[in-house]
Write a structure and sequence with these properties.
It comes from Cyclostephanos tholiformis. By secondary structure, this protein is an alpha/beta fold. Helix content is 44%, strand content 15%. It is built from 19 helices and 16 strands.
């Protein structure tokens, strides 16, 4: 659908909370459509730069794909720069920490071509998108030199890196990691106009960097859900009937009454080991894990050692993924480091009860959709078992309390309209100059980002040559994982797991 820019700006104004004033004359002038080549629409021209895009299987990729399609449906011209844009535009390489994803280094001549394109909004999806940061810096310098107000420069942040550092760094390495983090990303507030996060509680330490005397330059990029794909009716689909039959057979074989489902990547920070460890306290429950990742072998070993019923279903997509939610008696997401938890949204759209750890992001995003007693104290297995049991009791008695209200869930169309409102605010938040500190910091930051990009590329090549592993100096797969410290309970080592297995065999 193509809309003219006047009606478009008016509709966006209504979406922004508290926006009682029209655009300033300067902002209104910048929002006016510019001459475009034939065949293009009259909406805003938007560049989205993201290393996570479909068909990658993760929440960021799904979100960016929906944003791009939704903005086009609202009349915007959207270009997406990503690792598969082609060898003429970017140097693409595998993500050394996640072989299911890719990273990129933008070619200099592609950067020049972007700078000569008349974009209204440049939206960079973070974190670790070094090419995106170079694009932001280039546009900011161009705006300063030419004294222009376009394009509006927007950053959206989708990862709690500070929490990862807190939970996985050891001793002095934690402070080194913090210093490197702020050295690498501290430039972002100086080269962008606005930062967006999935919730207000996402990465608060980073968002505070965007604050200034006239108020924060921060907003929320609302998350939608496709209620036609994720719905209770999915249980009646072809795959739904397959999952129902598989569930009945599995519960009968394991002599259990309830099926818990968890969907997500199997990596240490997702806390799936905590969910497996609580199963002995839930004697009537079996667990399905949908997803894959580097932590799967250790989780399989842990399930065998504890002798609990856990079925690993691997990656699922399409109708198989949509319908697996609908057959669950309860959906559980044990992660403490989410920025929103899109899988929780999908479970709610499937009208499945949910139980979550009581962390700020989940409390903000789902506090009105989930009963307060369905949240458990983080890292407390007793409290987790109680919260899960409460929700299963409601399920068993068909208690309407706590059932998700589908009308309260936002669609992706709603999310994209809200995103346009954030773009409008970015026009109003524009900064036209660098501070003196910014000019001093800039060459240092350039050196750090270029060195980091080269390091990422070299590390990815080494891992690829080693078949995806760098365990040459490690005894086992368990010791190749980041060690959990501080508030996280450490997973037993490979040797401990082996001794527990032998003891279990001798007992039997």
């Amino acid at each position: 659908m193509v809309v003219n820019i006047k009606s478009y700006v008016t509709s966006v104004d209504r979406l922004v909370t508290g926006a009682n004033e029209r655009l300033s004359p300067d902002a209104a002038q910048d929002m006016k459509p510019q001459p475009k080549s034939s065949g293009r629409s009259n909406g805003l021209r938007v560049l989205i730069c993201s290393e996570s895009v479909p068909p990658q299987v993760n929440g960021i990729a799904r979100r960016i794909g929906m944003y791009a399609d939704g903005l086009r449906n609202l009349g915007c011209d959207v270009d997406v720069l990503h690792p598969d844009s082609g060898a003429m535009k970017v140097l693409s390489h595998v993500n050394p920490w996640n072989f299911t994803a890719r990273m990129m280094i933008v070619h200099p001549y592609q950067l020049i071509e972007l700078l000569t394109t008349n974009y209204d909004v440049v939206h960079i999806v973070m974190p670790a998108n070094l090419s995106g940061m170079w694009i932001l810096a280039s546009y900011k310098i161009l705006r300063c030199v030419k004294r222009q107000s376009k394009p509006a420069l927007v950053v959206s942040w989708h990862c709690n890196i500070v929490d990862y550092i807190k939970h996985f760094s050891i001793g002095p390495f934690r402070f080194i990691s913090y210093a490197f983090f702020f050295l690498l990303f501290g430039m972002l507030p100086m080269i962008s106009d606005r930062v967006l996060t999935p919730t207000k509680k996402s990465e608060p330490r980073l968002v505070r960097l965007w604050k200034r005397s006239v108020g924060p330059r921060a907003g929320v990029c609302i998350t939608g859900v496709d209620k036609t794909e994720f719905s209770p009716a999915a249980k009646n689909s072809k795959w739904g009937r397959i999952w129902v039959a598989s569930k009945e057979k599995y519960l009968t074989r394991e002599n259990k009454k309830h099926l818990l489902v968890c969907v997500g990547r199997l990596s240490p920070e997702k806390g799936v080991d905590e969910l497996i460890k609580v199963l002995p306290k839930l004697p009537d429950c079996a667990l399905w894990l949908v997803g894959d990742g580097p932590f799967r072998p250790e989780l399989e070993r842990l399930a065998r050692v504890l002798d609990v019923p856990v079925k690993f279903l691997g990656y699922q997509s399409g109708e198989a993924l949509h319908s697996v939610y609908a057959v669950a008696d309860l959906f559980v997401c044990p992660s403490l480091t989410e920025t929103f938890g899109q899988t929780v949204n999908e479970a709610l759209a499937s009208q499945v009860r949910v139980s979550l750890p009581n962390v700020p992001v989940f409390a903000e995003a789902y506090g009105e959709a989930i009963p307060s007693d369905a949240f458990w104290k983080p890292l407390c297995q007793e409290d987790m078992a109680i919260a899960i049991s409460r929700q299963l009791a409601r399920h068993s008695t068909n208690d309407p309390a706590g059932l998700p209200d589908l009308e309260k869930l936002k669609s992706w169309s709603d999310a994209c309209r809200s995103l346009l409102g954030e773009y409008q605010d970015a026009f109003q938040d524009r900064q036209h100059t660098f501070t003196l500190l910014g000019w001093i910091y800039f060459p240092i930051w350039c050196g750090v980002t270029i060195t980091t990009a080269i390091s990422f590329f070299v590390f990815s090549q080494i891992r690829s040559l080693c078949g995806g592993s760098v365990r040459l100096c490690f005894k086992s797969a368990a010791e190749d994982m980041l060690i959990k410290v501080a508030s996280f309970q450490k997973l037993p080592s490979s040797g401990s797991l082996h001794r527990m297995e032998m003891a279990q065999k001798q007992k039997n």
